[in-house]
Amino acid sequence: MIQKRMKDFFQNNRLFMKMFLVMVISIITVSVLITFSTIRMSNNLFMETFSITNTKVLNQIKQQFESYSYSVAYTTMNVQDNGTIKRLLNKEDLNSLEEYKTYYAITEQMERIYSDSPDQTNMIVLGKNGRLFNMRYNYWPVTADELLHHPITDRLNEKPNQILYQYIPSSDITHGRNMIVASKALTERSTGDVYGYVFIPIHERDVQAIYEGFTNDGNSVVIMNGDGDVVSSNQKQWIGERAPNLLAAASREASGPVKYEDVTALDKEYMMMAESLPALDMYIVNLIDQEVVIDNLIDTKELVLISVGIVILAVGVVFIISRRMTQSLSRLVGQISNMAKHDFRKPVDESGGYEARELGAAFNYMLNELQDHVDILLKTQRQARKSELEALQHQINPHFLYNTLTSVKFMVKDGKKEAAFDTIDALIPLLQNALGNVDETITVEQEAANIDHYILINQMRYGDRIKVSTLISPDCLHYHLPKLVIQPFLENAFFHAFTEKKRGYIQILIAQRENRLVCEVVDTGDGMRVDTFNEKKEKRNLFSGIGIRNVHDRIQLLFGEEYGVEISSELKKGTKVKIILPLIEENPKNRTISKDNTNLGKS
Amino acid sequence: MKNYLFKKSWVFALAVFALIALAACSSEESSGDTEGGEEPDTITAWAWDPNFNIAALEIAKESYEGDAEIDVIENAQDDIVQKLNTGLSSGTMKGMPNIVLIEDQRAQSFLKSYPDAFYPIDEYMNPDDFASYKLAPTSYDGKQYGLPFDTGVMGLYFRTDYFEEAGYTMEDLKNITWDEYIEIGKDVKEKTGKDMLTLDPNDLGLVRAMIQSAGSWYVKEDGETLNIEGNEQLKKALQTYKEMMETDFVKPNSDWSQYVAAFNSGDVATVPTGNWITASVMAEESQAGKWAVAPIPRLDTEGAVNASNLGGSSFYVLDIPGKEKAAEFLGQTFGGSNEFYQELVTDVGAIGTYTPATEGEAYQKESEFFSGQQLISDFSTWTEEIPNVDYGTHTYAIEDILVAEMQNYLNGKELDQVLADAQAQAEAQLK
Asked: Are residues A413 and A372 in the same domain?
């Protein structure tokens, strides 16, 4: 049921569906293309501006690191050059009072130097004799022993004349923090002997503060040392990792002009820009996770949502407009395809859009013209048939007339005056009937009379070896039937059914059955094969010249296909002709004409 | 007609839908944070020592039954002081915590400089419940601002094994003067070779402890007038200090870790300081049973007692949104819960100044580490004896001057001159 309805719906809205689909597909395609090209264009534009900004940012970070390294250098130099610190660090074996004064003096000196030192950091001076002075104990609570035996101090002993920026990963000594320690050995100028060390530790967290403001999701800064260790990054999980790939790329990048380069490092693909910090033996690397950055900047979801909104809106509008346009067309098509049901007489509605209205009008005009044309055609055709019938009717077989008249002559000669008179009496109405209007109908009663006359003439001529009985239901007498309908079959039976048998009966029955008038001509003659019947009948129309076939055609022409002539026959037993006619009360000429039209239209 | 209407309304609905969809896309959350005024759900608290006051706050947070969320943040004490100074002096309270821990000897300078920045909490606590010496530094202008936290009551931590070796017992260290301490120290150094104590040249905490034990301070009772020149107690304290140096049993240090290392390594025989050092002493487990705590020596002057105070801090509520909740939190935990103090002393070893708590069971407990001494109980007893002094506002400023002058004194400058110079400097700097 539903399936059928669906099918009907699709059938009825085929045009609409096609149009709508095409429109929807185009709208979606256009929107998708525009959305994508917008995203791509803004991506490109963004990356371009982004790289310009980031170049500046990178330079700024670099400057900050340089100023940091400058102040570190300045501070260490001050410590190195400070005579008090040098003298006191070299002293051994002091009593409480002297030692106490020493501690105070060093702290005082350091206080002075430290006040110039970079903010957020600490300064630790360590003597080789194990004396440790920590300016901000909270910042890095470390003991002299721990420091003296730490690898960073060993490295200082190896390179006493250099400021080393050393990375200490999170461990016990740093209290779980990542640290970068600027450090230098304090040396005796004359001998080059190391008498102490100065450390300026900075927490990774505080290094981050330098560049943190410039970073965001996907735009990361990595500070890596010359060994390829990530010493600081806004991406916490990277800190402490060793990334030789990145180091190689960074050193290559930093030596050339600053521009973005693709690099695969730290398990992912990034766009990379780098600056070197030669004083710190470090690199500032800017890593861009393009996906994340662009995701953050361009709200793809929003863009897509807007596109979807526009598509829905456009599709809605298209739906309404195309529906209105196609609906009137579909209605027109429906009306046209149903035309036949209404005899091609019902004009189509001229409604809907301009096109549909014009089309309807044109169609209606064409329909009218066609109808006029058909009317004229029908009229001509009917006239042609009528004249044909009339012509046939006039061909009353002269042989019949000649034979009858010859019989009459012999009757007169033989003095059978009565018989001659009867024969002529029967001939006169027969001729009268045959000469009249072929279109007219006659009552069953009149036809019965004609039949009687015809039988009489034949029996006068050939004797009564063929006996004819007529059985007419009295309630049929007033019904009309076309002329010359029964006679051709009666004639056929007389002249062809009894060639072998010579004797027999012919029975004529007229009765009303199932609202029809049924006339039967049954003979007990030779019978025939039905298929041979058609060939025979045309040639031997002795009386009226109207063929049996002709009768059948005429009845169907007049009353429709349900009426006509049925013939059944059996060899040696006889033939039965059944003529089926409608019940016609009188002679309504107009009605038959209208029937004619319908039938013509259908064929 | 009906159909037409339906169609129209359908189009309208579609348009409305599209508009809403577009509007929803483009409008970001425009409702920003409403600055101030509103009660925050989270109360922030700043403190500095994860083993001590931070741990105490965590316990308070757990025992608190109110609806406020407490966020405890660790900051170095210097940073807290610096941040408070910057924040309060600039007048913007942005980024300030609701609750901040301030050392008692620093508190007055904050209260005096920024009286409007703090929120009085008289309504949330009863000051009579606390040790009286804590009230002067925590109140200002007749209003109670601070909720007293730990006591800085001092004790003389000493190595029983060293002293035994030198022939001394606990009884010999009870109720002694600093002069007697020096005599004993000489003996101990001689017999064991161990230094007596460790000192930081930049921290005159011991001097402060000495003068407070005699009821004196750098300022007079009004908290304003300088009391340096001619301060007999201070003079005696500096003399004692120098004598210790000259006796050559002082191991200098320059920071906290060196300080702790000095006694953890067994280099010094005594640690005269506040009770908050207990945890650090106990950190060296190998020395269990080798420590005991005697009352702090008194200054050899009239009226001096064997009790003093060093360190000790109190909580303050800043006058920013959330202050009521913050005050309520403090009032219900540090300000009035006996059970909380029992838990505090058991889990953290922090001795509060809430007097009703001293009756509790936990305060009577014996410490295994300190050879079965009823340490908490002893400290509580000494707490009650601490002379009440008004620290005033300039303790640390004056001390900076004294630290420098102390060097001059150690280098041979006349003591009266030292004090006079210090007074002159302080007057010039502070007035």
From this structure: no
